[in-house]
Design brief:
Rossmann fold; globular; binds adenosine-5'-triphosphate; binds magnesium ion
């Protein structure tokens, strides 16, 4: 379980988070929606301790994240698969080495075990026979899939997705959305998806949280939230915010 309690964060004089309260339940897929620059990526970074709150609390499975030591943070991060906004693959490494990266760093798996695990992860994202290719030989959608395969390599308890469909054409975006939903079902993990794609979020999420002016303006099942009152929510759901 992930918990934000009254989390505030400013940069220079700019208040980005102004009291975020949010609980992510075990096993759910929750999407965070909000305008560009609204603090969505900043929020994700608090979960794995890349950023610390100025005020308020961030908890993951009973651990108070801002007070964890470097070693404890390393341990925590092993339990998270992260698909960063840039979804950067290492361009100088093959697909196999990209997916194997954390396995080589954190485990003592043999080459055979690594081959097996890499194939298993690529299978989960429906890619086959691409191990030897370099990232620049892949399409945008394939690169996202490889990023996803890398994120699940360590069998994480959580996956954090930052804008998983940005930069993809609408058709590929839908395929990646379906893949995220299927991974969630197959792997029984807890997922947080940051996106500005309302349709994607409503299609794949158990709950959605709308960020507005540094706070959670609404949270609940997509059909509940979209029924909510108020100009702001309506605009939001229509993609105008
Ligand atoms: N490390 C940092 N130092 C200074 N300012 C930062 C830092 N990280 C984020 N910000 C600022 O915080 C604000 C929120 O950024 P954030 O990346 O969380 O937005 P976002 O909601 O993810 O937007 P987008 O949808 O465009 O990705 C921005 O104004 C950004 O410039
Ligand atoms: Mg962002």
């Amino acid at each position: 379980m992930i918990e934000f309690k009254d989390v505030h964060k400013s940069f220079d004089n700019k208040q980005v988070l102004r009291g975020i309260n949010l609980t992510v339940q075990e096993g759910e897929l929750i999407s965070i929606l909000g305008p560009s620059g609204g603090g969505k990526s900043v929020t994700l970074k608090h979960i794995i301790g890349i950023l610390k709150p100025d005020r308020g609390e961030v908890w993951v499975d009973g651990q108070f994240v801002p007070k964890l030591s470097r070693l404890e943070l390393q341990e925590l991060r092993k339990r998270f698969g992260v698909l960063f906004q840039s979804a950067a693959l290492f361009d100088s490494m093959s697909v196999k080495e990209n997916v194997a990266f954390t396995l080589r760093m954190h485990t003592k798996m043999t080459e055979k075990e690594i081959d097996h695990r890499v194939a298993e992860c690529l299978d989960q994202v429906e890619l086959h026979g691409v191990e030897k290719l370099d990232p620049d030989e892949l399409s945008g959608g394939m690169r996202k899939r490889v990023g996803l395969a890398r994120a699940i390599a360590m069998k994480p308890d959580y996956i954090l997705y930052d804008e998983p469909t940005t930069g993809l054409d609408p058709k590929t975006a839908i395929i990646i959305g379906e893949l995220i939903a299927r991974l969630q079902e197959n792997l029984k993990i807890t997922s947080v998806v940051v996106t500005h794609d309302v349709k994607l979020a409503c299609g794949i999420s158990d709950r959605i949280a709308l960020f507005h002016e540094g706070k959670v303006a609404a949270v609940g099942a997509p059909e509940e939230v979209s029924k909510g009152d108020g100009e702001m929510i309506r605009k939001f759901m229509e993609g105008q915010l």
